[in-house]
Design brief:
globular; 3 helices; alpha+beta; 8-stranded antiparallel β-sheet; two-stranded antiparallel ribbon; 10 strands; protein yfey like fold
């Protein structure tokens, strides 16, 4: 859990435009649309849905084509060892339980009654129906500012 939280803080605000949530697949439990957690770089590139943003260390940074992020930010990380390891929610994305950017913490707690708080004070929860992944929520003024879907074993950020 600690590894992703640092990446969220270091990555800065992720702001993008997108189409309404009704037209979008859910973020989780196994990925976003055809991009799945654990999918190899080769398979992820083969979908035609991602664009390279940068490289470094054991992972490379990518964006979903329909959600370009600003300079210095990425939409997802792909690990050399673990494949797609971290996906950052963009505007309009929601979890199957209806949580997305802008959701209140009351809505998050209602959707995820097993919500825990990391020692860094960030709420997180194991993804329902996928025990190998978790959601992390970064809040500001009581609302979700950033939402992350990640593999428990991700090795992209420290």
């Amino acid at each position: 859990m600690r590894k992703v939280l640092v990446a969220i803080l270091a990555g800065g605000a992720l702001v993008a435009t997108g189409t309404p949530a009704l037209a979008q697949p859910a973020l989780g439990p196994y990925g976003y649309g055809v991009i799945k957690l654990g999918m190899s770089l080769k398979k992820a590139r083969g979908t035609g849905k991602i664009v390279r943003k940068g490289v470094g260390g054991p992972c490379s940074g990518w964006d979903l084509k329909q959600y370009p992020t600003g300079r210095g930010s990425v939409g997802l990380y792909i690990s050399k060892k673990r494949g797609v390891a971290v996906i950052f929610a963009q505007k309009g994305m929601k979890t199957p339980e209806g949580v997305g950017l802008g959701s209140t913490m009351k809505q998050v707690r209602r959707a995820y009654p097993r919500l825990k708080t990391h020692p860094s004070e960030f709420p997180y929860v194991s993804v329902p129906r996928n025990p190998k992944a978790y959601y992390a929520f970064i809040t500001e003024k009581g609302a979700v500012r950033q939402l992350v879907l990640a593999l428990d074993t991700q090795d992209c950020v420290n």
